[in-house]
Amino acid sequence: MTLIERPGGCSKLIALSLICAVRVLTAEPEGLGPSNHLHTGDDSQASPSSATFNAPALKVNTQIVSIRQVEGIFMDSYLLIQDKLHKGELGPASLGEAIRMAWTEALETATQDSIIDQRADKRRKDIIHMYLARAGGDVSGDRALEYFRREEAYYVQLLRREMIAAAGGEEELAKALKRRGQTMREWEAGLSRELFRRDVLALELGPASRSPGAARAFYDKHPELFKQSEAWRLRRIRIAKDKFKSPEVALEAAKMVCAKIAGGADFEELALKVSSDPEFAGQGGLLTRDGKTDLPSGAFPFEERIAENLQDGRAAEPADGGAWYVIVQRVAFRPMKIQSFEEASDKAEALAYSEKLKQKRRELFDKLKHESYIEVLQKDPPAHLLKGVPAGGDFLPPEKKEP
Predict the structure, then answer these.
(1) Which segments of 1-78 are extended strands (E)?
(2) Pairing of β 63-66 and β 324-334
(3) In what order do the strands lie in the sheet with 63-66?
(4) Global pTM?
(5) In the predicted structure, residue 32 carries a pLDDT above the cut 60
């Protein structure tokens, strides 16, 4: 049994403790490796089409990879395709081919994941040795499990922070997860698996280095990844037409409110007193989503169109909003911009490191694939993905098809 020694060597007592620890840890694999996280779905709550989702897409050695697992990887590319179609960067005629290409790439990524996961399982003992050798002192067999789990939890938290930085912050990560139908809790459950993948890459190929120069080079090469979207902060007052004898009288009441604002009255206080807007009147007319005040374009399109012609801090004349006359105040607007390197340095460093890890994943995959049995069982995208391909018009992803 080969031990990975800590710098300066490892005493015989520590070595014996590590041997005992390995026996304890490998006999109790819960939470110790990637094989425990390969399936995160709850079959008891599966949808009516669960037979399709759970059907095999790949066979890698003795492991079956389901369509559900491949589709989870595919979804990022799928959403990117959707965005390109809406922006006019991809035509409907090219949509089917783009989906097929993205599915092929997802199959390859799933194959890489499976091979690396299996390698991590085989090298589980070495990974455990690596963690325990960081003790810097004696670790008895009965404390080894506790120590290992504490070390694993520590590095999982470091990984969590790094991946949140790569996403551009926890809010951006949550948005991305929501778009692909995944919760933060589900994502966090897979971090232990990702940590083991990185550990086996380090054991097989050596650690991936980080450097400020690499982060800067990545930032300069990919400025589009550091866009900060435009954001609106708006308030509104709604004057309900049905509270007056006629719409004309309601309009006169709305104009009186505007006159008070022009005369120096506080918009927030007026909203609290006169706005017929149960959702937002109690917060002074401030428009929010999920508690957030600075919102991207499209959150409140009617109010945004009015605010486009205003300066920050100014209020518009009443606009006809159907059942109400609406008075909009543009509190602030932040235009879209590319973040400076100083603002984006954490994200740039995390993304640059992620790029290096992808290269190492590919290198290890190329090394191991020749000794692996790989059979593709679902070469083409499942039919339910291609149902979203239109003959013309807007692209509707399958999970959001109109009735």
Answers:
(1) 56-60, 63-66
(2) unpaired
(3) 63-66, 56-60, 374-376
(4) 0.64
(5) no
Q: Where in the chain is the domain with CATH 3.10.50.40?
A: 230-335
Token pair listed for 235: 């308030």
Render 348-365 in DSSP notation, one character per residue.
HHHHHHHHHHHHHHHHHH
Residues 244-254: tens digit of each pLDDT: 999 999 999 99
Q: Specify the pairing of strand 227-228 against strand 337-338.
A: antiparallel
> What's the length of the chain?
403
Q: What does 161-218 look like in DSSP terms, one character per residue?
A: HHHHHHHTSHHHHHHHHHHTT--HHHHHHTHHHHHHHHHHHHHHH-PPP--HHHHHHH
Measured in degrees and rounded to the nearest 5, phi and psi for residue 56 equal: -75, 140
C-alpha–C-alpha distance, residues 379 and 57, integer Å: 8
Tokens representing 78? 């799928």
Residue 211 CB coordination number (10 Å): 12
Residue with tokens 């690396």: 116
Amino acid 142: pLDDT? 66
Residue in the structure block whose two tokens are 């005992």: 20
Give residue 14's Cα distance to chain centre.
Answer: 41
Q: CATH top-level class for 230-335?
A: alpha beta
Q: What is the mean pLDDT of residues 150-165?
A: 90
Structural tokens at position 128 = 């455990």
User: Is-contact 342 254, C-beta < 8 A?
Assistant: no
